[in-house]
Predict the structure.
Amino acid sequence: MSPLAIFFLFLINSSLAANTNIYNVQNYGAKSDGETDSSEAFLSAWSAACASTSSSTIYVPRGNYLIRNAYFNGKRCQSNAITIRIDGTLLAPSDYNAIGNEENWIKFEKVNGVSIYGGTFDGQGASLWACKNSDYDDCPDGTTALNFYKSNNIIMSGVTVQNSQKFQISIDGCRNVKLQGLKVSAPGDSPNTDGIHVKLSSGVSIMKSQIGTGDDCISIGPGNSNLWIEGIACGPGHGISIGSLGWKKQESGVQNVTIKTVTFSGTTNGVRVKTWARPSNGFVRNVLFQHIVMVNVKNPIIIDQNYCPNHQSCPHKGSSVKISDVTYQDIHGTSATKVAVKIDCSKRNPCSGITLEDLNLSYNDHPTKASCINVSGRVSGLQKPDNCL
Ligand SMILES: *[C@@H]1O[C@H](CO)[C@@H](O)[C@H](O)[C@H]1NC(C)=O
Ligand SMILES: *[C@@H]1O[C@H](CO)[C@@H](O)[C@H](O)[C@H]1NC(C)=O
Ligand SMILES: *[C@@H]1O[C@H](CO)[C@@H](O)[C@H](O)[C@H]1NC(C)=O
C-alpha cells in the first residue's frame, strides 16, 4: 500500500473511532489469555467511556479475560449511554480465597444508562461450593457475580452469567432495569447460588430467560414494586420466591408484581411467598401469578409465613407481614408431592384477597391436595386440588 493510502486509512479509522467512541479493552491492556488479570484494563476502558460526553461503547473481543474483581462507578460519568458489547468470557479467580470475602465480583454502582449485550460472566465458584458442602465450617460467604447497585436505566440482553460463588445477579436499589434473553446457571447442588436477586428496586423486568441454579431462580427481597417477570424457564432450583421477607421489624413491602408464563422443571418450589416468623411491618400486595406450568415440582404453590429454619431467631412465632391480593390464575401440570397447594399464613395477620382460578395440578396421575391456614379469598374455574378456602 502506498504511504498516501495508509494515511487515508488512518484518517478513516480515527474518524470512525471518534464518532462512535469505541473503547476496546485490549487497547487498554486486557489480555485474552484467561490468566493475566485484566481488571485494571477494564476499569481504564470504563473511565474513558464514562468521561465521554456522548454515547460510548466498551468492546470486549473474543477470548477469556481473568478479572480479579472490578467495581464500575458511575458517580462522575459524563456519558449516560454506555454500551458494553461482549464477545468474550470474563472469568473470576477460581480459588475462593482470592475474593470469597468480598461481597461482589463485578459491581456497577450509581451508573445510569448502561447496557450490556452478549458475553459470559463466569464466577468459577466450584471450589467455594465444595468448601460449603464439606464439613469445614470456615468457608467465606462468597461473592455475587454481577451486582447493579443504586443504578438506573439498565439493560442486559443475551448475557450468560454462571457458576457464581453466591448469587449470580443482584439488582439492588435500582430503577428501570430490563433483563432479557439471559442464561443464568449454576449446578443444582451449589449452595446459595440464587439466579437473580432483586431488592429495593422498581420498574424491573426479567423476560425470556433460562435460569437453573442451586437456590431460587429468582428471589424477590423487600422494597420492590412494579416488577414484571415473563417467559422464564426455571430449573433446577428452588423456584421463584417472594422472600424471605420480614426479617426486620421495619421493612419496606413488595407490591405490584406480575409473574407470568413460567415453566418450572423439577424444582423444590414453584411460586412461593415466604416470610420469617418474626414481627415486621412489611407487606406483600397486588401480585399475579399467571399461566404457569409445573413439571414435577415439590411445592407448586406455597405461602409460608412460619419460616424459621432450625427454629432459631424467631422467638415470637409467626410472621406479621401482611399478604393481600395475590392471584393464582391458570396454574397446571404435575406436583412431585401430594400437597400441591400449601397456604400457611400468619395467625396474627391472616392472608386476605387470595384468588385461586383454574388450577389443574396432579400427582402421579392422581388428584392432589390443598391445605389452607389463616387465609381468606375466593376461587373460580377449575379447582384441582379441591378448594381449601
Ligand atoms: C405495575 O407495574 C407495571 C410494570 O411492571 C406498570 O406498568 C404498572 O403501571 C404498575 N401499576 C401500578 C398501579 O403502579
Ligand atoms: C387437567 O390436566 C390433565 C393432565 O394434564 C388433562 O388431561 C386435563 O384435560 C386437564 N383438565 C382440564 C379441565 O383442563
Ligand atoms: C388461624 O388458624 C388457627 C388454626 O387453624 C386458628 O385456630 C385461628 O383461629 C386462626 N386465626 C385467625 C386470626 O383466623
About this structure: Confidence is low (pLDDT under 50) at residues 9-18. The first helix runs from residue 3 to 20. The two ends are 82 Å apart (CA to CA).
